[in-house]
Amino acid sequence: MARALSPRRLAVTTVAAWTVALIIFFPVLWMILTSFKTEASAVAMPPEFLSADWTLENYTEVWSRSDYPRFFWNSVVISVGSTLLGLLVAIPAAWAMAFVPGRKTKDLLMWMLSTKMMPAVAVMIPLYLLFQQLGLIDTKIGLVVALMLMNLPIIIWMLYTYFKEIPAEILEASRMDGATLWGEILYVLTPMALPGIASTMLLNIILAWNEAFWTIVLTTTKAAPLSAFIASFSAPQGLFYAKLSAASAMAILPILILGWFSQKQLVRGLTFGAVK
Amino acid sequence: MSTHSSRLAARMMVAPSVVLLLIWMVVPLAMTLYYSFRFYRLLSPDRTGWTGFTNYVWFFNSPDFWLALFNTLALVGGVLVITVVLGILIALLIDQPVKGQGMLRILVIAPFFVMPPVAASIWENLFMHPQNGLFSAVSRAFGAQPILFLEQYPMWSVIGIVSWEWLPFATLILLTALQSLSSEQLEAAEMDGASPFARFRYIILPHMTRAITVVILIQTIFLLGIFGEIFTTTQGGPGSASTTLPYMIFKQAIAAKDIGRAAAGGIIAVILANIVAYFLMRGLGRNLEN
Q1: Which of A9, A13, A24 to mutate to test the interface with B (most CBs of B within 10 A)?
Q2: What pTM does this model have?
Q3: What span, in angstroms and rounded, lies between the C-alpha atoms of A246 and B72?
């Protein structure tokens, strides 16, 4: 609904919109600025903006702490692993529900979404005990499985929404040409569904990367990803503000960049196609 | 196009997901239900046995429980109101033909990608901290005492932090809906002399109903389980002032090591989520149908 505006109104709305956007973004910006200050400068009162002592030391120090790269690597393995595993299970299911819908398909989809509404704490103890029995506590594979199951309903829903938009006639045509079921999926459907699969993948990597319940409950040290590491990082009396900020910046930057590149598809994906 | 064999194949393709989700849901839920009727404390491993509804009774008699229930609903409700209202306003603003809209979207969506512990620790340390936070510096600049956010207004502070995280999501979905509104309709209304408020009330708002519905639905799913923000900032305190139901259960399991009570709390949380889901689906289902 963009309409032409007078130059004055354009200026006013531009200033207003940028002010609001900068306020929303400011906490992230302030954290990034703090991460480049010395510890003394980070807690200086009144706060230092341009006069601060700038340094890269926080980053080198956080990175060289032997455990930080491990937390980082755990985050990568767990978020990517759980997403790929989830796609493997979800793609056939979403395909079937989108192209061979039965009478119960809508109910089934609703039921799947309703499993997301079950509070995680409600099943925390049994899952902890089950994981303990299976020797999965504080292992990457354990978290991969847990986060895969946690996000599976969302993966299925998103894929279902994207697959629904592929015209069924194309599949019928390929079937007439004698394509087998798997051939159909592999050579006809997959190329058309690839953009949808890609944005589903991105969103779920982000959700898994940022997950902060199961990662805290199911890990101690060995398999803990960044979300568990940051949650336990206390800053007694502001002694480590700059280092905390550097660690935080490194924890969110990969996801922030990934998200910025794909924000349009992400927002649409998460509405399950209900908003266009 | 659904022959018998393709139908069978389709079932086989859905089956793994259904089985996995059933196991993920039913097995732990059955175990939780079982433990909730048992005496099971990790600190006194010798005493075990059935206790009937004792664990549930403890919850209902605990003043903390009613506070936690209230806090849980206040968190979900508060964040929904703030994000939807501000989201609509910001979406209306950004939807104007402003300079650099692409960059604006990038700035606005950023908080959505910040993981909960980081979001919580930014606000706790860099902003709300009574000595070193930016807010206290602002208070002092005006000669006022710094506000003790997390000590005096813990629940409001948590609601504020979570709202900041979810505002981008609400804003961008509402913006997407707004951009699909045809300008002709608005111009016609304008020429007929409709006031800006009337245009908003009778054209823009009805157009956004579906988007608002989606925002409420998706956010409620995530907000009912909010945990990391409280774990990082207030730890449910001071006292139990910012303890939500999930956090109260977590405390029973981890701090008190009372598995039976935590399990009973878990079942109560499931029932609460079902009640919320029921009203949500009933109220919102209609909006999503067409």
Answers
A1: A24
A2: 0.87
A3: 32
